[in-house]
Amino acid sequence: MTTMPTRIIHRSIDRNWRDVYAFAGAPENMPLWASGLASGLERSGDDWIAEGILGTVKVSFVPHNEFGVIDHTVTIESGLRVYNALRIVPNGNGCEIMFVLLRPPGMTDEQFEADAAHVARDLEALKTLMER
Fold first, then answer.
1. How is the chain split into domains, by residue range?
2. Structure pTM?
3. What is the distance between the alpha carbons of residues 64 and 61, in angstroms, rounded to a whole number?
4. Which contacts qualify for 102-105: CB closer than 8 Å, 24 or more apart?
């Protein structure tokens, strides 16, 4: 397998990184800012289940940690697994939230741009919530 093209999408947030991590890393809060999970997440063992435009998806998160890592794998009904790297990094009194968007084989330029715009809107929504 070759390396996929990527784009790192980030926002600066004027709030302590631990506060942002605690909020953003809680699956039950994700529907408040991650529009792809707007229908909500229900716990299913160690994973979470969501209903969306792609049908039923399973979301598996890394364990809570001291590094601000909220990486998660989304498995859609077809069996396709999408790895999402999401990090909260301290920056002075605030933080950076960074999402590494991977472009899988077969995705068009237009689809990749739309996906990037979607992630940017979600991070902006999180920023707005955290800076209130």
1. 6-130
2. 0.90
3. 9
4. 102/4, 102/5, 102/6, 103/4, 103/5, 103/6, 103/7, 104/4, 105/4
Which residue reads 């068009």 in tokens?
Answer: 108
Q: Pairing mode, if any, of strands 94-102 and 42-44? A: unpaired
Q: Where are the alpha helices (DSSP H) in 1-132?
A: 17-24, 109-130
CATH architecture of 6-130: 2-Layer Sandwich (3.30)
* Number of other CB atoms surrounding residue 63 within 10 Å: 6
> Quick one: pLDDT band at residue 1, thresholds 50, 70, 90?
low
With beta carbons less than 8 A apart as the criterion, state whether 4 and 112 touch: no
Residue 47, φ and ψ in degrees, nearest 5: -110, 180
Q: For residue 84, give the nearest of 2, 1, 4 by alpha carbon.
A: 4
